[in-house]
Amino acid sequence: MTPHQPCYRSQYHRFGLLAQGQFGKVYCALHRRSGKMVALKILDARRSPTADFLRELSTTLALNHPNLVQVYGVEHQPHQRHLLLDYCEGGTLRQLLDTEPRPKRMVLLQLIIHLLAGLHHVHSRGIVHCDVKPENILLTLTPEGWCPKLTDFGIAHNQALPPTKTLGSPAYMAPEYFDGHISPAVDIYAVGIILYEMMVGYRPFQGPPDQLRAVHHTQALPGSASIPPALWPILERALAKHPRERFHSSEQLAQALTTASEQIDRSTSREGYRARPYDRVSLFEPWSLAEQSLPPSTHPPPPSLVPEVIALAPDRSWGARLEASKGLFYCLRKGQWSSPHALPRALSNPPKTRDAKQQHERLPQALRKTQTEPKILILDGRHGVIWSSSPGQTQLTLFNRRGHSLAPIMLSTEITQIFPSHHPLQMLALEKHAPQVLLKISLHPFCVQRIPLAIAPSAGLSLPWAIALADSEGRLFLIDHAGNGLGLVASPFQDFNTEISVKETQPVEMKGKLTQSEKYLPKQSNIQLFAVNQWELAIEMTSTSPHQPNHIQQICLKDLELELIF
Question: Which of 55, 157, 293, 310 lies most in the core, judged by the most C-beta atoms within 10 Å?
Fold first, then answer.
């Protein structure tokens, strides 16, 4: 870009500050025309030397791989430099490892295997990253789970050049790297540390930074019962003290992990177990919560259950109405409707990218559907969102109460339901291909967090102090706004559900990754949650069978023995 072209800050709308360091800041930004979400990295020229900046830029531009963060553009000004990078809405691997309950081992192993594919591309270009750690591994959203992307090539070493000063994170540094010897084996050692940390929960070598050099050189690899037997020889080889004793390449390590993951999958399978349809696509380890019983309610349906024709703000200060067939929406303020506003073209006709087409082709034939009609939702007193999903992706368009909207934000997963949160510019969503997961979507800055659940919810509701989720059987799962489980409540419709699930079942043909055993999906009921007040909610169950009546249950959450902290 030449100095005469407009600055990136005028072409991109910022969605909040992501990180701030010694050399600059990183913002989440949306391109005003294309709607592409990027990370806008602003470096201070006075603190970041030009030679270091050019070295990192040339290294990143020489790499092109799905598991590496890409650079889309650069701008140089007298006191600032701007980099446009891939935006990863899933956060870092460190944040994922800190999630409770922890992700499944097979999910974590697949992350490492994909990461090694990116490292193999880096090493094939004669480059050593030198700072592989969970904080430098970003995650993007996909229907299958997460896609890792390696970032931060600030201290990467080109093997065609003489070695520079040793920098990095001592907790993940190979023994020879402390002495200035750099080779691809340095990155393989760091991956071994991450793999050990994934399996056990902590790093194998610990201590103060000034003592970690001696620890890496002398301390033997500690064993742990949490490490599967098939992984132990791989860890021993990846974390060998001498670089010649390690795997010769990241590709070789990936092949060994692929073989080990197949052995682990076979050893953990249970004979005679009929898996539920979503067991194989679940991302997290199962919850273990005591289920509480709930006495039947005799309360009449509350008056707040009358469905709204239009979307209204929580304080009912404004609303909006959508006419999807005409591609228009209207805003309601002070009792008057605004003039019609046109939906963005990208929402009416979403771009069919190559990745979305490949994801659509991988889906079973029974799951391939066309784009759903756009839906409208009011988030708070100032903002609303229009959303529409199609196979493999979802489009979100944020608008304000004046009717001004931004270009749609594309999510690489199919969402079935969105409901507002009690936090500003935040919404909660349910995924189609990850039933036991709740998506927390924050818009300022834009980030997506996956929260594991004890049930596969069909409906959700945000309360001031908790989030209530109900599955198709009527069970209620409560979590706080940070994602911690509060309690699991038994279904008040036990007899009603048992009769449906036994009498009305139909075989469903599932292809692809779900063909692990025979699966039968019951004709489940439709569930809706309604807020009566901050302590009471109502569950409405509508049967799909014409021979079954509809049921409604009002629940007072104060009566439940939940460990709540206020």
Answer: 157
Distance CA 31, CA 36 (A): 5
123 Cβ contact list (under 8 Å, min separation 6): 184, 187, 249, 250
Top pLDDT among 292 and 224 is at 224
How close are the terminal C-alpha atoms of the chain, in Å? Answer: 53
Q: 455, 454, 431: which is closest to 441 by C-alpha?
A: 431
Q: Are residues 426 and 516 in the same domain?
A: yes
Task: State which residues form the domain around 44.
Answer: 11-86
Structure confidence by residue, pLDDT tens digits, 121-148? 999 999 999 999 999 999 998 887 889 9
Residue 566 has pLDDT above 50, yes or no: no
Q: H-helix or E-strand containing 55?
A: helix 50-61
Q: Helices 105-124 and 250-268 sit at what angle, rounded to 10 degrees?
A: 170
In the block, residue with structure tokens 């707040």? 304
495 and 451 within one domain: yes
Residue length of the chain = 566
Residues 240 and 306 in one domain: no
Number of domains in the chain: 3
Half-sphere exposure of 132 (CA within 13 A, CB side): 30
Q: Which long-range contacts (CB under 8 A, 24 or more apart) does 175-178 make?
A: 175/213, 175/216, 175/217, 175/241, 176/242, 176/243, 177/130, 178/213, 178/216, 178/217
Query: Which residues are catalytically annotated?
Result: 131
Please report which helix (H) or strand (E) contains residue 115, including its range. Answer: helix 105-124
Q: Are residues 411 and 500 in the same domain?
A: yes
User: What are residue 140's DSSP bridge partners?
Assistant: 147
Reported as a single tens digit per residue, the pLDDT across 156-205 is: 888 877 776 667 889 999 999 998 899 999 999 999 999 999 999 999 99
Pair 529, 470: CB distance under 8 Å: yes
Backbone angles phi, psi at 332, to 5 degrees: -115, 120
Residues 6+ apart with CB under 8 A from 515: none
pLDDT in tens, 389-432: 888 889 888 888 888 887 788 888 899 999 989 888 899 999 98
| Residue 286 reports pLDDT greater than 90 | no
CATH, residue 381:
2.40.128.630
